Amino acid sequence: MSRKQTKAINGVIAPGPRFTRWALWYFTLHVAIPVMSVASLLDIGLWYLSRSAGTGCYALLCFFL
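^ that's the sequence the OP posted. Answer follows.
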């Protein structure tokens, strides 16, 4: 659906859908922050696991070297 597309709803011409600041706010609040939080917790957990295992290697490239 194009942004320029308009529709007549009950005889009133309405503009097409568009992204707003509220959409950005909801995306940030409900998608970006939870995903980044889970990724950060997994990163910290894997770092602690590799540190307690005694390996100095933590990146995926270390497994291939």
